[in-house]
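A quick aside before the break. I want you to see a complete sequence-to-structure record at least once, exactly as it would be stored in a machine-readable document. Don't worry about memorizing anything.
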Amino acid sequence: MLARRTLLLGASTLPLATPALAQSGSDWPNRPVRVVVPWPPGGSTDVLARLLSEQLQAKLGQPFVLENRPGASGNIGMEAIAKAAPDGYTMGPATIANLSVAQFLYARLPFDPEKDFSVVSLHWELPNVVVAPAQFTPPDTLPAFIDWARSRRNGVSFGSPGVGTTAHLSGALFCDRQKIDGQHVPFRGAAQIIPAMLAGDLTFAIDNLASYIPVIAEGRLKAYAVTSPERWTTLPNIPTMAEAGVPDFVITSWCAWVGPAGMPKAVVDKVNAAMKEVAADPAMQRRFLQTGAKCTWSTPEDAVAHAARQRPMLAEMVRISGARME
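That is the input. The structure line, written in tokens, reads:
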């Protein structure tokens, strides 16, 4: 009887022990990981998320399967990450627009950028680039482009991957400072912005460099300047904004890798360690640079602090843009 009672007591404790073990993340990953990308295919966030996912899959031994969930300046995809089970099987890239801009832009958000995510590490950083279609834009320098844009009777238009993105805020700030009559035209991503410029339907963009390198290399888009503090390694002939005559215009885009709030520390630590290895690999740094970005790494704490430091400047840029979303 004692043996039977002991056996039953042991069995009754198993259901209680199993969830605790699952929550620890000690056996993670033992199935595919869903990577929610809040932007459409072909844009910089998508391209760089695919590069990182490829490496995480190789290092952690399970498929990292991308799922594009674009819309509402990334809010649809971010909501999907925030509301997923915090078991380590849903992650994704969260850009500066998602973590440091959205709360100043939207009256209501379906997530809290400061509370609803487990931040793993910074993922990448890249400048924006001022581009215009070669076929429809005569000026060859940024000062000449500014003069040309000011002289346009009906003003000019600039594109972005959505309201509140750094492309939108950069374009609005540029037009405000240079006294250009500029009309913002939001798109779903660079895959739509580029054809609009090449068709002559859009004047220019100040968008993430990563999406534009191939078209710049082909000569179909003119690149006037980059918004980084120094010239970009793979495009040494393109000046910085300061060198091109526009001072105090250093604005870089960045991205962090996140999961839902409450993700097990063991999972965060495993992914963070893998990302550190990726960032330390010279071959991967070259691959990121070829696409227009710098592969970065940080502790989770430093990534959270970085997002917080950016918010006052971005709040002011949102104010200048006049953007407000419900």
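Two observations worth writing down. Residues 127-226 form a domain with the D-Maltodextrin-Binding Protein; domain 2 fold (CATH 3.40.190.10). The chain has eleven helices and ten strands. We'll return to this after the break.
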